[in-house]
Amino acid sequence: MPDGQVHSIAVVGSGTEAWMVAAALAVACGGRSAIHIVLPPADTAVSPKRSDAESTLPPLRAFNKLVGLDEDRLLRSCAGTFKLGTEFVGWREGRSYIQPCGEFGATLGGIAFHQHLTRLHAAAAAVDPELYCLAAAAARAERFARPGIDPSSVESTMSYALHLDARAYCGELRQLAQRHRVVVAQGALRDVAVAGAAIEALILEDGGRVTADLYVDASGSEARLIGQALGVPFEDWSAWLPCSRQVAARCEQPHLGAPLTRAQAADFGWMGHVPLQGSIACHYAYDPAMLDDRAAGEALLAWIDAPAPTALTYNSAPSGRRRAPWQANCVALGSAAGWVEPLESTALHLTQSMIVRLLGLFPSGDGRVERLEYNRLVGNELERARDLAIAHYATAQRLGGEFWRQRAAAGVPDTLAYKMSQYRSRGTLVIYDEEPLPEVAWLALYLGQGIWPQRCAALAEVPDMEAVRAQLTRMRATIDEAVARMPAHAEYVRRQRLQARLDG
Amino acid sequence: MRASPRHGPIGTVVIVGGGTAGWMTAAALAWGFRGRMAVRLIESEQIGTVGVGEATIPHIRGFNERLGLDERDFVARTRATFKLGIEFRGWGRPGDSYVHPFGAYGSAIGGIAFHHLWLRRRLAGDPTPIGDYSLPIVAASLNRFSPPVSDRRSLLSTFSYAYQFDAGLYAAYLREYAERRGVVRTEGKIVHVEASPEGDAVRAVKLADGQVIRGDLFIDCSGFRGLLIEQTLGAGYEDWSHWLPCDSAVAIPCETAGPWTPYTRATADAYGWRWRIPLQHRVGNGYVFCSRFLQADAATDVLLRNLEGRPVGEPRVLRFVTGKRRRQWIGNCVAIGLASGFLEPLESTSIHLIQLAITHLLELFPDGRWDPLDAAEFNRVMDIEYERVRDFLILHYHATERADTAFWDHCRTMPVPDSLAYSLELFRERGALAAYREGCFLEPSWIAVYLGQRIVPRRPDPLADAIPTEHLTAHLQALRRGVQEAARSMPDHRAFIERYCRAPTAGAAAGSASGA
Lengths: 504, 516
Fold this sequence. Notes:
Strand content of chain B: 15-25%
Low-confidence stretches of chain A: none
Mean pLDDT of chain B: 92
Distance between the termini of chain B: 43 Å
Oligomer: heterodimer
Structural class of chain A: alpha+beta
Distance between the termini of chain A: 46 Å
């Protein structure tokens, strides 16, 4: 780049992560930079790699909008369903809770809602936080409707995300990227030519070379460029997050139930359950040191209580991060930069965040400050995602098993220990810079696991308790009414399809 | 109502010192706890208050609203005017001027931040200042004001506002509020502080008349000296004067000669800067300077020479050391206001830092178990807030081309904190803003100061080039026109106040200079 500008970009990867970044770059560059996609070997067929189904978070809708993917179209082409949260099952023996895409209650008298709940709980009242959360209440009732935008309505207290067939979503991104003139290289990646700390060229199976001003490593945990070629070290977090292996299967399910992803604690990890139109995608994330693939596959099949599962597919992704995800002319994003086992549906979310950061820091010149800032932000965000995932294990209350005993003994990072101590003391939710998830994710986890602060905030002791109870009763009624106005999730999805047919 | 049996309540809170910090704290405690604990405030009329903050930032409205103050009443009682930003004169170079607005500039296109769009046009030769795309800046330049509307689609919703008021009157106003709600004021001078045997807590204070006042929680609002936090508990002081070398100020109000500007002015001078804060009944003036280079008498001369109207009262000189206590909460003692630290009022943050401390204290309010985590979290967040404001202030001094005095040579060439050096380089190189969650100054504030003080990014966002030029110029033109129209639709600032909330006795109270 003689003028200091990036004129060409080569993206290495073949999964959803790669096509997300290719599409976003193509749209943002508006044709000013040539973008090549270079596929790693054995991946000449486009595949979403990691997952069979994507359980996403609400911000992905903004990403889709940014690149120009229509949500209604995605719902059709990707067998999409709606998501109002994740149901965590069995993280406390025999219990389940929902981590919602939405708020619990509302601030009363300038005091956070959970402080009032804590006070009632301390007064020996039976308190079910989900009754005050529209997203959770609707999800429990298996109902859904897109929330309105009126900020004074109860509906505005909830958001939503999508469940998408991973292969189809990847295909949509690919089509879009290619419409924006992203070119797939002829031939897979064979080797990487390195000069000093930088990438010189990508060498293809047929001996052809692809050179670019900027190389994007979106090759997943293999980290073909940043790891294998440039040797940037990987900081391994598996002492805290050992479920690096995953087995997945799909089974038919004509009945569409709750708009929820499910994450159920299992003997050697946890099982995920993502509802799509007509099917359910299931997986088991487990600790490969404690469970072999065959046994994991059998456990998954035993868990799936439905006919005709597809063949089992396996893959690995250890939790951890690259020390410097952007080095010289190579920027890694997605799981090439870092990975946290996706208890919190952070897979595409972290990728999206890194893409947004790359666009915000798109390099020119020597790109030095861009690299520094990208690495700082991405590193912090991955650590915050790590802490939240670890918090699930750290607060788990399981009856037994070696895996869970080890989890309990693993300890937590200082940042997380401080956070949890502040919550336990008086319900203070400490939020650091670059948290990938909102405060409510932490609150749902604590409340769901039955962890109550030792006391409520002193201010919350002041209002008349009966008046607070009365307000809570009204709040619950408002939420019940709003839930009753919503159609069943399955019905809403059916109507969407019908509407599409009428429009289309 | 019975207290929860699981912990002991705080029976008595003793606030040491009145002034803005003391009375804001007293009012907030009276509001928050509604008489569930005894709140006592000890102040001495012999000890004057400093009240450096007369100008505020928009967060103050949240504080007033929480207390349930009526805005009209508050504005009338404190002889307040409205504030859309701060005009900085002569900071980048002598003769320069820019406004730090309470609101954003323009709007983004396809995720490209507005200042990069502006920068692209600037590099292409378009001389339009970025301020032309900010409604509060344009409104301020026309001396117009009306509050923002709630309809998010309207340009008239794209700004915020604060107040310029008489801090002495504000303290008096809050005193009335607090006393009405049961706060007990004791007049008297503290002659002795009784600490715990271990020296880690305050037990009681003794007044000159022999009265001993005990308490469970002590709030140190005693000002610079930190009677409890420093003199009794030995918090220690982090001295930042190598970065912010001004250590003195001289202040004097004067009669209003010009229009009631809806903004504060901070004019860089040879050895510091001068403030101008317009109130309804007078104008507050001061010169913050560095005594290593300038004697107080000379500073006073400069200040008096630059007054727009007849001076009211006598000039008062203050000395300070910029920095903060190493720990602002120790044991059962929380320092608020000048007892917790000092940052010059260049960005009107004095009252804001008081407000932040109060907000955090209310949220982390201790109970009888004295969990050390209460103080730990308070100190953690207050440290962050102080450091963020500190960096922002240093930026004003450091980002300059002034070379007219040894003072400015020092500021221009001094090493700055790593955190600021990093942010500065990121903007200088790439126009990117180091995003932090904490801190009261958001991106538009940093952009205002960077660009206003001639830090123009070397390399603008390359993705801004992807936007077609016609699209970009049309976008900017429409914005500029919209801002002009919206600003001109607002009433004159003074006319607005006179209609809405004029002080009933304004003009007749020139003697009230105590809050300077």
